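Saturday, quiet lab. Running sequence design on the structure tokens for the scaffold JK sent over.
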């Protein structure tokens, strides 16, 4: 029999219903939090890039010095028109300034880095046979530090050349006009999001 003290007390099934309702109310906000955390984690780490590759194969750019305009026409002694010289165009081959091989920092990295002066005076950093990892917000820098020291940070005065075009292949990065390449000792593959170096190459001046 049920005594007076038992009246009004929820039986087992009612308790289960109440617990279920409370659990549902708690689980919805918790689920939203978990989804948000997972989304942030995917955005930051982009784990799928550990299983993907992007290949880029660019030729070394060529350029020519500005074309020299035709000289004014002149009359010869016979009154015939002649020229003081025709159109001329001079060009020189690109010249290697410095080069070095990549060493591994946070990710396996190999290949060669070269700084090159083009025939029109422009300068590029060229990466050849590059092999590294894909990652979030990976960029290419010139650093005044040598390759080993760049593992701890880019240092003062580093120059950004742009986002890494691909983790495999041959690619060119334009050096800003007026940059004195003699001040820089290494090329660095740098993950901007996590401030880590994937790898770096010492830029050793090419003799001659």
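Result came back. Writing it out in full:
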């Amino acid at each position: 029999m049920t005594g007076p003290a038992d009246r009004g007390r929820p039986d087992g099934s009612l308790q289960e219903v109440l617990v279920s309702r409370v659990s549902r109310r708690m689980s919805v906000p918790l689920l939203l939090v978990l989804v948000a955390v997972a989304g942030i984690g995917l955005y930051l780490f982009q784990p799928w890039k550990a299983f993907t590759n992007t290949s880029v194969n660019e030729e070394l750019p060529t350029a020519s010095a500005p074309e020299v305009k035709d000289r004014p026409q002149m009359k010869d002694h016979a009154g015939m028109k002649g020229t003081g010289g025709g159109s001329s165009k001079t060009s020189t081959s690109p010249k290697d300034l410095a080069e070095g091989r990549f060493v591994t920092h946070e990710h396996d990295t190999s290949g060669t880095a070269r700084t090159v002066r083009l025939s029109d005076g422009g300068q590029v950093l060229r990466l050849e046979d590059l092999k590294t990892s894909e990652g979030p917000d990976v960029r290419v820098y010139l650093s005044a530090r040598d390759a080993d020291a760049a593992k701890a940070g880019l240092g003062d005065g580093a120059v950004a050349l742009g986002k890494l075009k691909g983790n495999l292949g041959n690619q060119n990065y334009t050096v800003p006009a007026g940059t004195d390449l003699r001040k820089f000792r290494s090329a660095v593959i740098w993950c901007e999001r996590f401030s880590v170096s994937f790898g770096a190459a010492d830029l050793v001046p090419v003799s001659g």
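Notes for JK: Confidence is low (pLDDT under 50) at residues 64-89. Residues 142 and 187 are 5 Å apart (CA to CA). Ask whether to fix the surface positions before the next round.
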